[in-house]
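Sequence in, structure out. Go.
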Amino acid sequence: MDKLQTEQAVRREAIRRHLAGESRRDICADLGQSRRWFDKWRAEFEQDPRIDFADRSRAPHHSPHQIPDEVVRAVVSVRKTFEAAATLETKYGLIGPRTIQARLETLGILPPSLATIQRILQTHGLTHPIGNSSDSAYYPWPIAWEVNAIHATDIIPRHIRGGEKSRTFIRLTTTAMRSRCPSISPNRVRSCASIS
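Output:
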């Protein structure tokens, strides 16, 4: 017998030959299938003679971990509100998953994980890859006339709790305005006034 094109055709051929009176052993030997395979498809055919012999989906009928539609709508709504920047509160705020998660908590909605929020945003086309907004970053006045003439510095405190007392680290991010070359230096300090 020539090689059949699809698994469905092989199953159909096995049942056709069985109905024609051929033995199970001969059918399985000719088709290169096991007796267990044959018994499975014969039982399927006997249960429903109109069977199409297609594989059945093994996906669960119910997904207990699926995010409710209300939560998805809330995530999308909060993100769009933050992006619109219509109020003073949202004009200069962050719009990422961590901010959305915090906002959902204040609204009394049990928030999904950060990764799930990110997936929801990607699914709805609400993510913006880094560098997509413009060709170059905007650096306001003053304009540096030579290298190392002017630096911009961000001071970012991090509080680490645990043990007997909490510790504060300050991360200084300094950018040379002419070369746009960043420099990051973490410092363990007791107060912001001790930063040199």
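Check: The helical segments are 7-19, 24-31, 35-47, 69-84, 88-91, 97-106, 114-123. The radius of gyration is 32 Å.
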